[in-house]
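Design request, tokens follow.
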């Protein structure tokens, strides 16, 4: 999400590598992908919430957001680049413009549809569980997929041209789904309540893989149409450990005793929840593999990638522990919901690259770089991306 007060998790993300050879996903040959398209929430958003929601200007529209790479706020919920930015650069592509800022521009090299605060489920789901008043935005995954449908005619105009075009495109669907749980927690739902939502939320994400031309009423067909259009390499990513290690959660939902924390200092219960979500997601991805044997469907372990530097921060160049926030308003983790990053009373560290945690909810550019590098070169994609 955009605001540090709104807690976010890296939930089921989907990485869809197209018809190019698997080895070409390494970025070693930068001419293989000619475009890239991204869907998700604040962990992927490059400016859509900033345009669509005036409230976001009070947070991500202010310095010190964007201080490291862009030297100005861009709508990204970090001090600099996100995973999607590093992947684009790895494949020799430009940073993706936000869809709501792309009118009149040539989008053939790609667009970012992600919106901070977005959900995998549509508003009726939250009405049903009594949490609709907590929604920051109605620009859910199905809306983002609808945006993609609108620009498709400007990308290709026949089945043959679309197959050729998408065979050289990279699709990122996610991360998305974490806010679905966050809104439930904001409404006082328990972890047991949230677990009952997992199959539905995970299905919404994998369904999106089956129909990138889905509408709000029907998003149950993306992979089939993508495959027909030319896509062959698809992957799904699970939740990383940011919820249980988030300084926001550690501050607002502290454990009752030491046994509630693991050796890193993260909350065990949210760790279990993340793992449960990831297991369900993997089951659904395995079903997609059986349904579409001609496609390469990968699972990316964001959880493992994030926990690698949470457990051994110095090995990755982080001199500060994984629980302390770079930009915040004090307290044991430097997170204060009354003085969150960008708000009066908060302060920013002098060197964000020493930290993994940026604002109590989102990560620093350095941490996102480590995750992106693990996705491309590490052991966290199965089958291997490279």
């Amino acid at each position: 999400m955009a605001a540090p007060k709104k807690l976010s998790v890296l939930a089921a993300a989907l990485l869809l590598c197209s018809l190019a050879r698997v080895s070409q996903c390494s970025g070693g040959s930068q001419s293989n992908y000619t475009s890239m398209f991204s869907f998700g929430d604040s962990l992927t958003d490059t400016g859509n919430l900033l345009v669509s929601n005036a409230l976001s200007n009070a947070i991500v529209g202010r310095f010190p957001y964007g201080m490291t790479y862009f030297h100005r706020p861009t709508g990204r919920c970090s001090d600099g680049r996100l995973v999607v930015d590093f992947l684009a650069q790895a494949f020799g592509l430009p940073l993706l413009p936000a869809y709501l800022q792309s009118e009149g521009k040539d989008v053939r090299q790609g667009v970012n549809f992600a919106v901070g605060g977005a959900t995998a489920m549509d508003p009726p789901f939250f009405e049903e569980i009594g949490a609709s008043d907590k929604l920051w935005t109605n620009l859910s995954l199905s809306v983002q997929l609808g945006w993609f449908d609108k620009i498709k005619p400007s990308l290709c105009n026949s089945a043959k041209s679309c197959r050729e075009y998408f065979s050289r495109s990279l699709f990122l669907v996610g991360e998305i789904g974490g806010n679905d749980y966050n809104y439930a927690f904001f409404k006082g739902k328990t972890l047991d309540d949230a677990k009952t939502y997992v199959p539905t939320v995970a299905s919404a994400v994998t369904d999106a893989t089956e129909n990138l031309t889905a509408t709000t009423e029907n998003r149950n067909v993306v992979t089939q149409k993508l495959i027909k259009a030319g896509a062959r390499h698809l992957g799904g990513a699970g939740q990383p450990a940011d919820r249980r290690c988030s300084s926001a959660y550690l501050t607002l939902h502290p454990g009752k005793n030491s046994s509630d924390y693991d050796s890193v200092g993260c909350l065990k219960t949210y760790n279990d929840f993340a793992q449960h979500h990831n297991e369900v997601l993997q089951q659904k991805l395995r079903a997609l593999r059986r349904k579409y044997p001609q496609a390469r469907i990968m699972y990316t372990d964001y959880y493992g990638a994030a926990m690698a530097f949470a457990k051994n921060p110095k090995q990755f160049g982080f001199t500060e522990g994984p629980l302390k926030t770079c930009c915040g308003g004090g307290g044991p983790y430097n997170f204060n919901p009354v003085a969150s990053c960008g708000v009066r009373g908060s302060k920013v560290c002098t060197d964000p690259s020493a930290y993994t945690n940026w604002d109590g909810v989102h990560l620093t550019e350095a941490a996102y770089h480590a995750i992106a590098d693990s996705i491309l070169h590490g052991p966290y994609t199965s089958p291997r991306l490279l």
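Comment from the thread starter after seeing the answer: thanks! Confidence is low (pLDDT under 50) at residues 1-31, 212-223.
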